[in-house]
Amino acid sequence: MIPSEVLPRPWHTVSADLFKVNNFWYIVIADYYSKFPFVKKLNNLTATTVVNVVRSIFSEQGIPETLICDNGTQFTSAQLQDLAKRYGFRVVTSSLYYPKGPGFIERQVQTVKIKYH
């Protein structure tokens, strides 16, 4: 899902993805409004670790209205759903039948990978 309306403010809608560079895993959370990516190295790929990093970034930057992500187990986990409920944001997962949906975050990942090489 790509926001089609003009976003009212920065950090209204963000997108997240996981990626690997040089045998290390990272999470990128990028703002649709400013296109600014936040990147954090992960100790492991458990849902608990990913949710803790998401919580940390949201604590620093504020709570978005919407988090767009893929259907990875870390993003469909009960832990992330609980965080969304407590913090009051929506989690929207991309559809397997709508490959353009995650295009924004995939471009962010490619840009970040270039910086990490």
Structure description:
Pfam families: rve. It comes from Paramuricea clavata. GO terms for molecular function: nucleic acid binding. The chain is of the alpha/beta class and 117 residues long. It has a single domain (13-116), classed as Ribonuclease H-like superfamily/Ribonuclease H (Nucleotidyltransferase, domain 5, 2-Layer Sandwich). Helix content is 33%, strand content 26%. The protein is built from three helices and five strands, in the order βββαβαβα. The protein has a five-stranded mixed β-sheet, sandwiched between helices. A hairpin with a 5-residue loop joins strand 2 and strand 3 (37-42). The longest helix has 15 residues, at 47-61. The radius of gyration is 13 Å and the shape is globular. The model has no long low-confidence stretch (mean pLDDT 87).
